[in-house]
Amino acid sequence: MNKLIPHSVFEHVAAQNGPRTAIEEPGRTITYQALNEAANRVAHGLAKHGLRTGDVVALHLPAGVDYVIALLATAKAGGIFLPLDLAAPPQRQAHILAVANPALVISGKTPELATGAPIKRLADLSLDRTENPDITTGGDDASYIVFTSGSTGTPKAILGSQKGLSHFLHWEIGEFGLGTETRISQLAPATFDVSLRDILTPLLAGGTLCIPPEEARGSSRHLLSWLEDARITLTHCVPSLFRELMTELETGATPKSRLPCLNDLLLAGEPLYGADIQRWRALMGDRVRLTNLYGPSETTLAKAFHRIGDTPAEPGRMVPVGKPLPNSALLVIKDGELCDPGEIGEVFIKTPFMSKGYLGAPDLMAGVFVQNPLTPDTPDIVYRSGDIGRYLGDHTVELLGRKDDQVKINGIRIELAEVEAAIRHHPAITAAIVIAHRSAAREPSLTAYYISGTPLTGTEIRQHLGDWLPPGMQPAHFVAMDQFPLNLHGKVDRRALPPPVDLLYLDAPYVAPSTKIESSLGALWGEVLELPKVGVTHSFVDLGGDSLKAIRVLSRVYQTFGVETKLQELFPGGTVRGLARTLTARGAGNNPVAEPELVTAGIQEDRSQQQSGKAGARP
Fold it and tell me: Rounded to two decimals, what is the model's pTM?
């Protein structure tokens, strides 16, 4: 067994735990022995089809047993696995395939993909050979490719290494004492590198990987129930999903009795605040251990952690990202010098376990994989994170923000330049600026301000972006401008751009609720979307809704009306009026009432303010 090679460790674990359950998914389980043998059959088939060490294999499969078989088989055959998004926009998918240049695609169907590589099913590759392949792989060899948002306007490919992946997996197993009783959920999409900790941590610990049913991915209520039914002991999630689970817990009378098997909750991917911990501890006490993880994909999964002990006193302050993993360092540097505690600087990450950098982008690599500023005369490459932070008194690191235009929304890393570039691909748009606004709850969302030669609707721009960006990267609001406001230096004054909420009802008039059920839904949507009023004919998407806000709305709808609804009823064009009709048809009741005074009050005032000229906003 080579501890630097995850699939080699898995083979050892599988030999020790043959009859134990390795993976559970709805309607299917597989033991360690069966999983290892299935992966071996496909690995031998890949070799027979001419796969060579270092070739890329694209995995076009949904989360589940077959995906893990394909992943392990690719690794065992000496290949590099590339997860593909089954619903990726065509232009983005084409770019990913062109950059990664896979030698073969494994798919459960015959997809239309912009690649000349052969497309095979697992059954096409499976041979009657169950022994572990005898292929030598080194710790410095590449393991996987994931794509992340790019500041140049296109996604960039990160090439992960065997030893980098192994370093994190062994650390997590040891740090949290994981073993055969461990049950870990896979909540992250396969195209995110963090899905590898969901998948491989339990399999290298001898535990069980648990795949949730589809309904649990679109409903916090179903997810909470599934976490309990599946007896999950450890889960990784982003703070935004953590907040949705807390909202669901707050609806019950005895939240402390929920999630009885959960021991550890590991949070990563976006800022975690003191208010989040205060809220969780008020609901659940301190039975479940909370840990904040930190680390860009370029340095492999996570390179720092903070076990959250005492409940933070300051609700608006970010929870520290903590201290580095073994054999790694977080360097807070300003003007070429290491910062003293309390002094603000940029965070650099020093580790021998970082990724192998960006595939086919040496100029991008040179900008972030840089010589250590503290040792300019000794070769030592560190990763320049772009995060701003400081050391606390115990040398724990606290992040304070970014020095560039990168944001995290619902755990998705987004370069604003990529979004702007995708918008400018529209033939009618001559200029675009994308701004990240934060709500009162500190949740970011994107607003696109654009100048076009012909009038466009937000729906038309979204249809265009559907070819370029996944929904999670698209702006929540689109604001047409005649011109951008400029500062005294002739540059765009981003602070003078009008707030999107002020302009929601310029293009389409506000229509007030006309029934009790519409009034209730309007208030509910307004609370989730943080809007003072909600027009019943405006779509959820046009009002700034996204998938996570939709999950929140559906949970509240169930609590209020006792009626089950689905995400498809909010996307792409769901309105309060349409949802009210759906609820009525399902027995929720629909008693007409007079137009609510609270909703209609101030409409004319708001309209006059909107029409008065908002820094060049087009009326």
Answer: 0.85
